[in-house]
Design a protein that fits this description.
Number of strands: 9
Number of helices: 10
Distance between the termini: 29 Å
Strand content: 15-25%
Bound molecules: zinc ion
CATH architecture: 3-Layer(aba) Sandwich
Shape: globular
């Protein structure tokens, strides 16, 4: 810590909240309003269809994109990185300042003097994975669906700005709230025991292996309703987050990818090429 640079004056805390698997229209259907207090809730597009590559991308600093036509990718990236000048309250941030690591936690910690923390829900993001680089603390939560427990663990050091990544799991299958008895979770043939079987997540987050059993429309609608309910719940916890963070903290609320609920014969995410698996909500702004 002694060799860490002195942070620029007025550098802001940054919190990135990733509601895992939350589709943009599920967030809208939830009537969720808290993210909108940061700024407009936009429909954006994830760069990847499942958790691990998507988080790598987010941690490169590239947030879900708006897919603008007639724009070169390099111009878009440039514009996205310049936004960090406002997000961090640090002058003249641009892409080349993130070189050579091109990784936000390393840049924030080693160049700007931030403390860096990750609280994650998904086993594919556990601390032994290459995603965990540049973090002072990095924890896979004991339960995959407990954002409130993450909020309890967040600490803000008055002497340095901080970066927090929160990978929130309530919105991921089985869309269960922390106080829901696992016996009441929906069980689909082939999905049972997913959290005991990391390998099943590793192959891409495609959670269902039995096509006979799961393409049941009623069941898919029930699952979608559960994701909407989970979105309502975690949206409520955003209010708690906004109360908790120091004034002047920049908060980003988004998702790592969407989810399919039977559209065109798909369920889940991962090895799926479909608009809905890339469709995510995005909002950001200053907590005053
Ligand atoms: Zn995910």
């Amino acid at each position: 810590m002694s060799e860490r640079p002195t942070p620029p004056d007025a550098a802001r805390n940054l919190v990135m909240v990733v509601f895992d698997s939350l589709r943009y229209d599920s967030y809208l259907a939830a009537g969720a309003t808290r993210a909108a207090t940061l700024g407009p809730v936009e429909r954006r597009w994830s760069y990847a269809s499942w958790t691990a590559p998507s988080h790598y991308n987010l941690l490169m600093g590239l947030l879900p994109h708006s897919s603008p036509p007639h724009v070169y990718a390099s111009e878009y990236y440039k514009g996205d990185f310049v936004r960090y000048t406002e997000r961090l309250g640090v002058a003249d941030i641009e892409f080349k300042r993130l070189l050579p690591s091109m990784y936000l936690p390393i840049y924030l910690r080693d160049t700007l003097g931030y403390t860096t923390h990750a609280l994650v829900s998904m086993p594919v993001l556990n601390r032994h994975t290459p995603v965990n680089v540049g973090f002072d603390t990095y924890e896979l939560m004991p339960r995959h669906n407990d954002m409130a427990a993450m909020l309890d663990q967040m600490r803000f050091d008055g002497t340095r700005p901080s970066f927090h990544l929160l990978n929130v799991g309530e919105t991921h299958y089985p869309y269960a709230l922390a106080d829901e008895d696992p016996a009441d979770w929906p069980h689909i043939s082939g999905v049972h025991g997913i959290f005991k079987h990391l390998d099943e997540e590793n192959i891409g987050g495609r959670l269902v292996s039995d096509p006979v059993d799961f393409f049941d429309d009623e069941r898919l609608q029930m699952l979608r309703a559960r994701q909407v309910r989970a979105a309502q719940h975690v949206d409520g916890l955003l209010e708690k987050l906004f109360d908790l963070v120091p004034s002047g903290t920049w908060v980003i609320v988004t998702s790592d990818h969407g989810e399919l609920f039977g559209e065109d014969g798909y369920f889940g995410h991962g090895p799926i090429l479909h608009e809905k698996v890339f469709e995510v909500p995005f909002a950001e702004g200053l907590v005053r």
